[in-house]
From TrEMBL:
GO terms assigned for molecular function: acyltransferase activity, transferring groups other than amino-acyl groups
Protein's name in the database: GNAT family N-acetyltransferase
Domain N-acetyltransferase: 29-88
InterPro entries per UniProt: Acetyltransferase_Butenolide (IPR053144), Acyl_CoA_acyltransferase (IPR016181), GNAT_dom (IPR000182)
PANTHER family hit by this protein: FAMILY N-ACETYLTRANSFERASE, PUTATIVE (AFU_ORTHOLOGUE AFUA_6G03350)-RELATED
Superkingdom, taxonomy of origin: Bacteria
Length: 91
């Protein structure tokens, strides 16, 4: 199994895939407009999880960068679940 590479570089994110997953497979972001997701990514510390060149996981942190941080929108694509990827995203 290739290792998971984690990046905070938002230019690497597969935004269409993130939008598709969040808007179709979650309760908290069902039908979220793409423009709203793009704004949330721009204003958060985002973590993309990549296997080889494909993004397979995502998480973002909303924070004041001093005392408070909120972890949200954490997911791993179903075909990559059960491999410890979400634990690495949260580490």
């Amino acid at each position: 199994m290739p290792p998971l590479r984690i990046s905070t570089d938002t230019s690497e994110l597969d935004v269409p895939m993130i939008h598709r997953y969040l808007s179709q497979h979650t309760t908290w972001a069902r039908d979220i407009p793409l423009s709203l997701l793009q704004r949330s990514i721009a204003n958060s510390l985002c973590f993309g999880g990549f296997v080889e060149c494909a993004q397979v996981a995502f998480a973002r942190v909303v924070s004041d960068y001093a005392t408070v941080a909120y972890l949200g929108d954490v997911f791993v694509l179903p075909e990559h679940q059960g491999k410890g990827h979400s634990k690495l995203l949260r580490a």
